[in-house]
Design a protein that fits this description.
By secondary structure, this protein is mainly α. Helices cover 78% and strands 0% of the residues. Helix 2 packs antiparallel against helix 6, helix 3 runs parallel beside helix 8 and helix 8 runs antiparallel to helix 9. It is elongated. 29% of the residues are buried.
Amino acid sequence: MTMRRLDFALPVGLLIGLVAVGGGAALEGISLRFLWQPTAALVVIGGSIGAVIVKRGAGGLWSALRAAGRLCFREPTDELEAGIARLAWLARMVKRDGVRVLETHAARSEDALFARGLALVADYVEPRIVHDVLERQLDEEDERGAQDSATLEACGGYAPTFGILGAVLGLINVLRVLDDPSALGVGIATAFVATIYGVGAANLLLFPVAARLRERHRAHMKRREALAGAIVALAAHETPGAITRLYSTQAGFFGANSPRELRATAP
């Protein structure tokens, strides 16, 4: 099993952002202790989580959190080369032992795309039909993978709103002590801390992480498209050398005209 390498971009970027915000507050003479308001944090974090659970369910939230956690590790990119090499080897085996040898490898594979493609080739399905079936499989994978970034984007949209809600709740509390003018300034300042939490969480954490997930997913889908193209080439009885040369460059299942690529770059 390949050891996963750490990627420090996410924690380092988050740390730099927090230091910048905290440093700016300190330069303005604002005590960092004053910025810690558990009530405001509860309203923003709890409200945003609740809204996301209503939208995507607890499973969707947990999936997005796991995907965000994986950003702390570099995504392995050698699975494409390994898959292409395996298909080239299988092409040689097919020439020697026939396509039925693919059934055993399809049954052992844990990759749904790989297993489905090999099973179709073993059943003598035409390359055009293999292409269409794998295209639908890729569409399903693309839709599932895009949901995690969409969940974090939704949470980023909710957080500032709940920050405003927290500020309103704080102002309501301030209105209860109008008879004490000395407490008004501190009360109003405390109320707006919730807005800082909401806007900060959205723009420093949630939206950037969602964008990073989307870019990683796009790169992952390009590799998956290249693997699907190699399977179609196997169905078309391409030589092992042709499979290696044509599809180890991550050119994609459809090249530059991939529907997923077009959707991702559409305005």
